[in-house]
Design brief:
Helix 7 (about 215-225) packs parallel to helix 8 and helix 11 packs antiparallel against helix 12. A nine-stranded mixed beta sheet has the order 9-10-8-7-6-5-4-1-13, with helices on both faces. A three-stranded antiparallel beta sheet has the order 14-15-16, covered by helices on one side. A three-stranded antiparallel beta sheet has the order 17-19-18. The chain has helices at about 30-40, 75-95, 115-130, 150-155, 170-175, 185-195, 215-225, 260-275, 290-295, 340-345, 360-375, 380-385, 395-405, 425-430, 435-440, and strands spanning about 45-55, 55, 70, 100-105, 130-140, 160-165, 200-205, 230-235, 280, 285, 300-305, 305-310, 315-320, 325, 330-335, 350-355, 375-380, 410-415, 415-420. Helices cover about 35% and strands about 20% of the residues. The two termini are about 15 Å apart. A hairpin with a 2-residue loop joins strand 11 and strand 12 (about 305-310). The chain is of the alpha/beta class and about 450 residues long. It contains 15 helices and 19 strands.
Amino acid sequence: MIPGIAKYFHARVPRYTSYPTAPHFTGEVDAKRYGSWLARLDPETELSLYLHVPFCRSMCWYCGCNMRVIARYSPVTDYVATLIKEIDLASAKLPKRMKVRHIHWGGGTPTALNGEDMVRIHEAVASRFDILPDAEIAVEIDPRTFTQDNANALGKIGCTRASLGIQEFDPTVQEAINRVQPMDVIEGTIRMLQEQNVKGLNFDLMYGLPHQTAEMLTRTVEQAATLKPDRIALFGYAHVPWMAKNQRMIPEDALPTALMRFEQATAAGDALEAAGYVRIGLDHFARPEDSMAIALREGRLHRNFQGYTDDLAGAIVAFGASAISQTPDGYMQNIVETGAYSRAVNSGELPVAKGVTFRGEDKLRSAIIERLMCDMEVDLDEMRRLYAPNRDDFYDELAQLRALQDEGLCEIDGGKVRVPDAARPALRVVCSVFDDYLQQNQELRHAAAV
């Protein structure tokens, strides 16, 4: 372990799935402004679509997503109708019927929908957009509640990739986070997916969970690798009970210390590399032949609100409560609360809550942070040439980086900044040097860096 890294274990920094980050979204972006952004998209731009389903059939104590547990299906039926209306409203603002390169279903749990409703939504998308023949259609899945009806629907919509929430196989940890799913449940889900020709397989694993040890997580990694997923995301549990009230069910004295979290992440990463996976950015792993690993090698890896991606679409148009869109003009987030979201849509309005318009150096700093997050290195001179040719050097930022360099967290060579592999867990700390919004407001509460 790099001696200087320990002092940053508790540093609170964003995850940098966007820049500016979501805490800086404001009401300056409303339905009228977002509608104008959609209208002036280049008609030839290929889009990425995000569909948010904010429902689950049971509550996981660790969850920090926008979701609600459903006891009856009727709220879901109403939500599906509203989501389809939003698709109609937003697509009508676009300059023409546009092509779609990528569709991501997130939540909540998209497969909380019954098969008929999932197909209805997909058909609504297909009626308004041209889904390219080789488009990726990815769906997040809860294996505990996945049914044959769900599997059949994925086959009908042409799903190409499924992401399974595993988190941890150890039964003690599963009990502590209220997510019990034995190995045979995972294997059964994979069989149903394979029968529907869903070939891409992602797993989500997690460190920093209650009662978890490095040994437990290493065993989980080894078990997961036997199932041969193409990609594995290894997320650090973010304990934010002031934001996610369900996390108050997790006793804080059962959580591992910062040093234990570091040891868990290190042990799991080493085990994944030993199993043949390539490290990608902060917390992702992929088989060498997977498209994400290829994108990393070719320097075209990207990062957005769905995490690391090889999606090259020029804009993300998102639908559903709390969903976030990205256009060349800025970010927009929909209303979070499902009732208010539905009222807006049913009144004929785009359900916009807030957002941020790109201004000043936002695109320059966004590009720098994205390259660091993806490649663990960036050429500042190249970034200035591309985004701000009249800008002077990053004097203040380089001064901060030199201090981090003295602690082993980065290396500076002229205008090039590189994060060594041993400092990977503190990658977000290095990125935060270029976060002008964070530098101006240190009061915001974010997840721990490690």
